[in-house]
Design brief:
The chain has helices at about 1-35, 40-75, 80-110, 120-150, 160-165, 170-195, 195-215, 225-229. By secondary structure, the chain is mainly alpha-helical.
C-alpha cells in the first residue's frame, strides 16, 4: 500500500509540475518561434505538442526533480532571496533548453513536411536558449505556485501573494484551472495574429487573382462623344 501511495504521489507531482512548466512557457515560446525565429505556425505547433508530449512522458518529472535537487545542492529554499532563486532557475533552464531544442525543432520541421533547415534550427536553438534562461525564473515560480494551488506542496516564497495562500482548496483549484485556460487562449491568440505562410501565400494569390479579374473587366473610356463634340 505504501508503494502504491508513493507512486500516486509522484504521479501527482509529475502532472502538476509538467502542466505548470507548459502553461507558463508555451505562449512565450510560441510567440518567439513564429515572431522571432521565423518558424511556420505548423512547425511551432508541432514543437509545442512535442514539448508537451516529452514533459508528460517523463521529461517534466526529470526537469522539476532536477531543479529540486539542484536547489538542495546549492542550499536554496523558499526563504532564499528571490534574486538568487531566479538566477538559479535561469541557469538551470537555459542549459536544458540548449540541449533539447535542436532535436525538437528538427523533428517538428519533418512532421510539418518541411526540409530540415539547419540555419533556422541554429537560430531557433540559440535564441530559445536565451529565452529559456530569461524565462527560467518565471517557470520555476510557476512550478511552486501550481504546487500550492493544487494542494500538493505549500509555497512559502516571499513573492507569493498572501491572498492566494489564504484561499480555500476549492477556490485555489479554480484559479489553477483558469491559469491553464488562459495559457491555451494566449497560444491561440499568438497563432491567430501570425497566420501560417501557406495562408499568407493563399491570401496573396487570391489578391492577385482579384486584381487580374478587375483588370480584365476594365473598359477603356468611350472616345465617341469626344469626336461628336
Amino acid at each position: 500500500m505504501k508503494g502504491i501511495k508513493r507512486a500516486a504521489e509522484k504521479l501527482k507531482y509529475h502532472i502538476i509540475d509538467s502542466t505548470a512548466c507548459l502553461a507558463e512557457a508555451s505562449p512565450v515560446f510560441s510567440a518567439f518561434e513564429v515572431g522571432v525565429a521565423g518558424l511556420s505556425d505548423a512547425t511551432s505547433i508541432n514543437a509545442r505538442l512535442l514539448a508537451a508530449g516529452m514533459f508528460y512522458a517523463g521529461f517534466g518529472y526529470l526537469f522539476t526533480k532536477g531543479r529540486d535537487l539542484s536547489r538542495k545542492i546549492f542550499g536554496i529554499t523558499d526563504k532564499t532571496k528571490e534574486k538568487i532563486q531566479h538566477a538559479h532557475d535561469a541557469a538551470y533552464a537555459g542549459i536544458l533548453t540548449l540541449v533539447t531544442s535542436p532535436p525538437i525543432y528538427a523533428v517538428s520541421q519533418a512532421i510539418a513536411g518541411e526540409d530540415i533547415d539547419l540555419t533556422k534550427i541554429a537560430i531557433g536553438t540559440a535564441t530559445a536558449t536565451l529565452l529559456g534562461a530569461a524565462n527560467g525564473g518565471p517557470v520555476g515560480y510557476a512550478v511552486d505556485v501550481f504546487r500550492d494551488l493544487s494542494g500538493i506542496k505549500e509555497c512559502n516564497r516571499t513573492s507569493y501573494p498572501s491572498f492566494l495562500k489564504k484561499q480555500s482548496s476549492k477556490v485555489k483549484k479554480g484559479i489553477l484551472a483558469g491559469m491553464i485556460a488562459a495559457s491555451i487562449g494566449l497560444m491561440g491568440l499568438v497563432y491567430s495574429l501570425t497566420p501560417d505562410e501557406k495562408h499568407k501565400a493563399s491570401y496573396h494569390e487570391k489578391q492577385t487573382v482579384e486584381q487580374r479579374v478587375d483588370a480584365s473587366n476594365y473598359k477603356a473610356p468611350d472616345k465617341t462623344l469626344e469626336y461628336l463634340v
